[in-house]
Protein 1
Amino acid sequence: MSEELDLTKFEHRLEIRQTEHKDIDEIIRLQSVCFPGMEPWKREHLESHLEIFPEGQFCAELNGEIIGSCSSLIINFDEYDDRHTWSDITDDGYITNHNPDGYNLYGIEVMVHPKYRKMKVGYRLYEERKELARRLNLKSIIIGGRIPNYHQYADEMRPREYVEQVRLHKIYDPVLSFQLLNEFTLMRINPNYLEDDLASRKYATLMEWNNVDYHPQTKRFYKTAHPVRICVVQYMMRKITSFEDFASQVEYFVDVAADAESDFAVFPEIMTTQLMSFLNEKSPSQAVRKVTEFTEPYIQLFTTLAVRYNINIIGGSHFVKEEDENIYNIAYLFRRDGTIEKQYKLHITPNERKWWGISAGDEVNVFDTDCGKISMLICYDIEFPELARIATDKGANIIFTPFCTEDRQGYLRVRYCSQARAVENQVYTVIAGTVGNLPQTENMDIQYAQSAIFAPSDFEFARDGIVGETNANIEMVLIGDVDLEILRRQRLSGTVRQLKDRRKDLYQVKYNG
């Protein structure tokens, strides 16, 4: 019997899969080959795609080599101008305008290595997009297609005539002919779509594939508002005799917030230093270590209250000693479903270092809640605009800032910066501070605060960009509603659009976390 033929040497493995971070460098090199003369992706573009909408990014891998890829995002196409450009629809390539509640999948690029263009790689990538649209119940796929052979005919016919000739199979265009074969229909032709696409003379054909399996969802059609109610607690620091006194005071305010049907109750920074009033420790560095011993009771208290009162709680912040023996200032999110998240304070004030020896965290987090994505920037952190920009780019709609300041100057730094962040990033910001005094407690003897909820400054938002504010230096609560649907609309079509209009060709904030 003859030796069995080894079939493995004839095999080729072609796989269409989701793009991963390890593919980024290969995709950038591939784009330079596919589109010579055009500016390729930057690494931060593709990282943003994977961070924001990983399900919409695909690549074709042949025997371990990336030979094709495609990128997309979800939008409500009706919210964009008919003559939009590629930069408009992709937020300059970063897709931070991706809307998971949108109706349309928008394809922003497909590319296949020239050596492999007879293997139906592009067809496979398009089919993967169609399957994604069906799976996510999207109404259609829309693409802005290049017409790369148009430059050969530009002197003798207008773009509309060229497109018609391609449709009638009298002219072959590698992109448009392919899209027509893949069941896409022409919507219109957009000028100045892609600035460096000289072969297409900057024109693009706007094409659409309709998902016949699409099932309209009424709740998406008539969504006119997405209100979120916030209860801000301006907390009085007064002498207490036990942790139970502290717990009783906290529960009172959670009960008030729940009675008002609030979605969030927000407490101030380092409110647990109130425990120092009964610890009888004169040394601030030792007193703060004693406070850390209440970490578990503090977490248990707020978790129980969040579930019992069915409310999300920003539990102010608390000093925590971790395994490295360092002490951190940590803000906690206690969700009403019983889950917990935390955000370390990233910038430590000279006072915190001098008196308490507090260490800094090193990560900006954004958290999912049943009221959208939120972030927490503790006191001093709101004074660094890069952090709020990073949080917004990660999807935050509300930035909560628990703070603790001892004088009006310190308070105004927090307030003015919080208001600036709301305008710069088109987000809602919330500040919650401590009032009162602890006369026998070193370094926590006086407080100054006026808590508030801020909005961007435009017609649909509250006058002066202030949803509401407390009276200064009085224990009280502030209850206000913010609307995430107004926020979404204003980011797309407000009087000014700070997020969309950033000059990323000139500057950008790079997050190293």
Protein 2
Amino acid sequence: MAPPLPLTPQQRRATLEQLSRDRLTSLSDHFGLDVGDRRVIQNHVNAIIRSRSVDFGELLGLLKREELQAICEALGLDRGGREKEVLVQRILNLGAPDGAEPPPEDAPVADRPQAGMRKQARPEKNGGDLGFEATLWQAADKLRNNLDAAEYKHVVLGLIFLKYVSDAFEEHKAQLLAEADQGADPEDPDEYRAENIFWVPREARWSQLQAQAKQPTIGKLVDDAMVAIERDNPSLKSVLPKEYARPGLDKQRLGELIDLIGSIGLGDRANRSKDILGRVYEYFLSEFASAEGKKGGQFYTPRSVVKLLVEMLAPYRGRVYDPCCGSGGMFIQSEKFVEAHGGKLGDISIFGQESNPTTWRLAKMNLAIRGIDANLGAENADSFRRDQHKDLKADYILANPPFNDSDWGGERLREDVRWKFGVPPAGNANFAWVQHFIHHLAPTGTAGFVLANGSMSSNQSGEGEIRRAIVEANLVDCMVALPSQLFYSTQIPVCLWFLARDKKNNRLRDRCGETLFIDARKLGRMIDRTHRELTDEDIARVAGIYRAWRGDKGAGKYEDIAGFCKAARLENISSHGFVLTPGRYVGAEDAQDEDEPFAARFQRLTSTLAAQFAEGARLEAEIRKQLGKVAEQG
């Protein structure tokens, strides 16, 4: 399905007319519009519709859920759904031809018009040469039957995890059997734990389950296997899914899925060295994110965005923290970065938190399959109201917090110690997250995170004053404007913020009073009709510019590039009202030099245009002629 067309002026007007004068006034202020008499509602409506600087997706993202529901009801749309982004997308989809509705969020990927294109691009997208990820996904998706993607995700990923731990166990067991004459005991759990391998009790071993995959009791057998593994491996307590016996899960299809996953080696040493499981797991997470839309976006940040954050921050050694960690992608990419630069697993200590219970369990599994030790708190919990790491001061913070969250409980946290730069508005958590990150940074710590574009320019509810205080405190190191269509979960434009507690520490050059702006909106490539990704070259370019600017050893010399990057001083930012949108600072791209003289080029282009006019006239005459024949025959 092609992305929705822009809303027509009539559709935008009908949407805006559902809002109160106070809300329209705040929107006009947010986008910096001149509306004349501010008391007249239509003045605000007209100014918003006429302005080319207003992104309607961003505008809708600023509204409360109740306002979006009222708009849907007035426009004859379904007002159901608790997630704001679902309602936003429903309204934006009015721009599709004939007001066509998008496919259901739980529709199988194979049922989506773009599925074929995505499956062609996906192996390259995930950087894999495995050759079977897409095949495995397609086969598994066919077995989904009447389960939606949100439920089926845990069915599949739980089995993949079980196959992995069983493969690793069986390989080490074979080694212990070969060394039995030397005193090795293949049934001693400590023999496995000493090698960082999960002990798998007999009833949970994959061979036992696959032998009974065709039995009607297979669902209960899998649940029992999950219980047994948790019982004998305390680090997995309350983590694994145990819903395979439920009536809604077709046991014949479950058996087929077990046979399918059983055909692939995942946990033996050779496949562990190639990170086969990690790559299959990541592939499935991304496909579930695509199939689920917003729901998937709650736990999945696109790989290229994570990689860019990590490459820019360069977390070589120290404490890495993500207070809204989703499925743990930031941690995994950080470990990969360390290993790719000569470090080893364990050079960084990982701390995280996640409020959604199923996503928290997903993160625990995702890290466990890679042998990554992480402190994700004793349980799932909200970072604002139940901070699991109150005393943590992190060297690196990487995060993708919920955009424009209006239901974060701000009214109950007005006196919180974290709000050093101003009390964040109760209707938007963006600057609560920013200040939470700052609060948890070590004296020389750095943070990189994703936020909605509105965070760079909003002046409503005191956000502008908070942003100004943070800039004047010399904390904002770099701002990156990202291209659209990177995320499965939202059409709201997003950006990257990078904060540095100490811009004059000895490791890097003194950057006090400076901020780097990068406009990366033109980067990336379309991997299907609706999704874009940043290429490795894009990531290297942006990260290289940032690291050169801040003075990383061996990163080269930094230079401003018109239309792309600009190092701005505090006084320059102040002159722009502390708006941090990169486009305000980088200027226009330099025009390419033309070897062809202007006169010759003008004559050539004029001739080409004349030829195109002539061809257009010929085609019009031919069409009229054919229409006349049709009329005569009628």
Protein 3
Amino acid sequence: MTDFKRTLITTALPYANGPIHIGHLAGVYVPADIYARYLRLKNEDVLMIGGSDEHGVPITLKAKNEGVTPQDIVDRYHNIIKESFQKFGISFDVYSRTSSKTHHETAAEFFKKLYDTGKFIEKTSEQYYDEENNQFLADRYIIGTCPKCGFEKAYGDQCESCGTSLSPTELINPTSMISGNQPVLKETKHWYLPLDQYETWLKEWILEGHKEWKPNVYGQVKSWIDSGLQPRAVTRDLNWGVPVPVEGVEGKVLYVWFDAPIGYISATKELTPEWETYWKDPETRMLHFIGKDNIVFHCIIFPTMLKAEGTFNLPENVPANEFLNLENDKISTSRNWAVWLHEYLEEFPGKEDVLKYVLTANAPETKDNDFTWKDFQTRNNNELVAILGNFVNRALVLTHKYFDGEVPAPGELTNYDKETLESISAIKAEVEKSLDSFRIREALKNAMDLARLGNKYLADEEPWKVYKTDVERVKTILNICLQISANLTICLEPFLPFSMERLRGFLNFTKQDWSKLGWTNLIPESHKLNKPELLFEKIEDSVIEVQLKKLMDTKKANELAEAKAKPAKDSIEFDDFGKMDIRVGTVLEAEKVAKTKKLLKLKIDTGFDKRTVVSGIAEYYKPEDLIGKQVSILVNLEPKKLRGIESQGMILCAENADGSLSIVEPDKKVKSGSEIR
């Protein structure tokens, strides 16, 4: 095994067309942050690199829909994302962006070297072109009918109804999203990275040389290589991105998949003039923390780019995670089915570590996993509060109660005392073993075993009882508990940094490096403790119910948005329609019908009389809000008794997809009795 001098950690660049959600955090940023903090505690040379991915078609589409520039979009979301990461405590050494000048220059230089050394192949192909707007259309700018399922708004690259990957030419009745016209096929020239030429090398480098990679990563890479690799375009016709640095080429940019990973390099350049040490020195270990949707880019395509360039290190490991679902449904930005980080930080102030803990304990390391608000509450209350918080609080409170907040000197140790203290080093070894293998979820469980150890020891020894007969023994018990508490501030620092900072404050204890974990004399006798507070607090059912309602409201809104109108009824003769006499009436009185939930009794001025109408709108309108309101009323409907009240007509309502009713009314006030034609 290579003994590296330093580690470069890269984290997948979040796409700057929306905020960060828990899926991003669980898949990439929380595990990367834990690992980086662990290495820093070991005093290792480590850099953690991040930034926003700001090019590509979805951003131009969003800008077009909002009537702003792509730069406006990426500025907005880059700032939201960066601020959210900072508040949440993701400890980037640099968080940059791909619209920066440094990145454009770095990406252009990288492309130019491969271009000048003949590493690309040139191909001319036919692509859809919008003649009215004089531009080639990216796949996402084309919609049409899916040939697989018949969905009428499938994109040129994928049908979001059935999930089938498509090419634009497969669409039935393709339409330009820019002009609304049918596009034409036109020849265009692009450059391609010939992945097929690197198949033999990739097999040797990954399939033979990196069998230690996680099974989900290794398996996906093997499947791609075994299926045969094809040349992949590195340029596209678009006006937003890094311009292709070739003379005589206009309206072409680097494909976003090509320029985005170069963002790791440009961000490191911005951070330090010694950037080449982290990218080109063979004694640097490079790790890519990503989600499974990025495996092919970071294990096949980006390494091929680096290999073709010839001077850069290749990744030593790519510990990719699977996906996190939300309440048994796939997280979706477009459907707003997510827990957004910036909203969580506002709604759960001071609980950054609670979310980190739950996402780590539930990390989708080898298969997709599910986040539920009930599990969030349970883990907080039953683990953080009842185990970790309970232990340190009792140890501190008892020390203040019995020894005025001063660390007591230990006496002679029992066998149980010795076993307990020896277990700290054993737990340290297990945590290290898990972290070094990128089993972050397992590492957290092992680290929490230290809190479980302390909790069990305190419960077994019962110093509150022993104090009545043996004060000296209580000194030993509490000293051991405080040494465990001090060790917890090291062991859990990578996982719960905000909480461990607070705990160090209670202990009046400075931050220690990883080598001190396992020491049983971290806090000297007579050391003065500060007044403790609760490290964690219970989360009540009412708090969780608010979050669940928020999700249910989102689900209802999505169902409404996706609901299709009922088909039209059978045709009728014009004379049939003419028989209906619909007028504008004004509500004079309104009251609920006793012992009913849905019925209101209305008195309506029809212009030629004042009549009573019973209407089933009580769930949607308060009686007092209807007074003076104008309605559409069918006046020649045969009267009918409802709950003993004769109803003399029917007011017209629109029924929404969820069954809710809205009164049909004129958009401006008219004379009562006006006919509706």
Protein 4
Amino acid sequence: MSMDAPSGQKRWARDYVFDILSQLGIHRIFGVPGTNEIPIIDGTSYPENRVEYIECLHENIAIGAAMGSARMTGKPGVLVVHVTPGIAHSIGNLFNAWRSQAPLVILCCQQQNELVTQEPLLASNLVDLARQYTKWAHEVRTEQEFPMVLQRAFKEAMAPPNGPVFVAIPWEFTMRRIGDDDRIKGVTQISPHFTADRQAIEQAAKLLREAKNPIIVAGDAAGYAQAWPELQQMAELLGAPVLQQTFSSLANFPNNDYHWQGELPGSQSGVQQVFKDHDVAFLCGFSNQAQITVYKYSDGPLIPPHVTQVYLSNNTWDIGKNYYGEAALFGDLKATLPLINQLIGNQPSPAAAARNQKLKEFAAKRAADWEVYLREATHQNEIWAVVIADALRKEIAERKLEKQFVYVHEAVSDPAPFQYLLPFTDQAAAPISYYCVGGGSLGWSMPATLGIKLEQDGCQSIDTRFVVAATGDGSSLFYPQTWWTAQHRKLGVLYIITNNHEYHTLQMGLTQVESMYGEAEGYEWTAKTQDPEYLRIHRPKPDFVTLAKSFGGMEGEIVRHPEDVRAAVRRGIDHVLSGQAYVLDMHTVGLDQPTPDLQASNARYEKQPPLDCFHFRPETGLLSNGPGQPGNVPVIF
């Protein structure tokens, strides 16, 4: 596309933004309109800019949608927010973007430069608000530096490791006339494909090759680098189980590989149990390393001291962040892993082959256990998540949507069935086929669907024909106004509400805190009740189908029994493939039943087979988050 302005068309400083978007092939700006932003938004009205403005009804929706867009394209998501409340409303998903290394450029239109010191309406120190969760935060100081700042912002968002960048702009600067030839020459793009130091590679390969019982942890950098094949080769050479970091942002290892063991547990004792019998841990792109809720130094470190730690990451901050690394490799995963594998050797050792055989046997037993669990779930009075995941799996297979689906996960009480049953495989998907965030600030899933669905082609050779989000009822109520934008833009997305009428993970959090501190000297704290009203979402219970209909007539249905799930999922997919959003309110606790006690609520989790079949088997002990708490119930605050 030519960047030359049509004859006679004026150019303003805001057009520097569109110069960059044109060069990078970015075609959307997300936001909530405000007066200060109108000069930038107005630029989307010119067809020659080939940029559309995606209007959202809350800034945290806008930033969540921009994150979804960035995940699909691999390019920065761009949004415009409105002064202090705009960036303040965005903080939840800005935090998620920071912890998930999502490339974003956030433009915030500050009040008039000559007025800011007098503290006018909505003005504040915007940079201080955003700085903690950005790679770089800056307020433009003069009109002349605007092009330089924009070039640096986009360069930094894309430089490894990716991340959000914030730029505050006094709004009158955007309206300053510029000459026809005043343009940004380009955006510096730093190649991410650099290898680690050769000596460090040799050291890492030696430690891994000589390990008696190695383990691999695949962090988000592995998914972003599309490093599945290289990690699979290493797992085979070492005979090592592979776990993903807790609250992985992507599918960092394919779930059809028998080395796959799901995510690390969410408790101190659970993480310790994973590592305790290993002598060497390869921590590959492992960013969010302490995704637990309660920690006591007296109970020991998460990774026991006897474990030799080998790190590889494209982010120095994540290398040896919490513990000493015997080998520390700074490099791109996709470029460096083959060099390590080459030095480990072309054939697994006899010990590695024996470990691989055990892993195959454990994986076969896990599959059989999950079949039993699924059959039991189909005979319950309410809907267990495994029934929903199974219905999605079957519909994806029947419709041949394997390379055409993205699953967005915020059913935080029920991750395992979706992570295990959906086809996140090396033949059928890509790391970005799974969308979550590393931050855990609720309200990421429904906004992300907007940006994901708007981008038809994913950067990892998938497309977004079928986008489905599974979201807990509590999380769904953060930003239901997302559905207005979905209807406004005619985005066919399937929204599944896993509705238990409570904040179940917080119920578990309460139990965990009491188990850790209820008898601890100096604390001895217990809650007034184990079934607090403030953790319930009832009296009245929200009607999600009616709520969705109010945002532009979105269709949906309530599903109460497991035998009805498959047909409802089929109807939902029929709707979304024809371009109509649809909501399924899945009752994981019956509406007409008395609210069950916590023990009854946990029955489905206690019976659920662990994904980590290598470390948590009957003979080794079942995973637990603490006294009376099954480990298959994640806990987040």
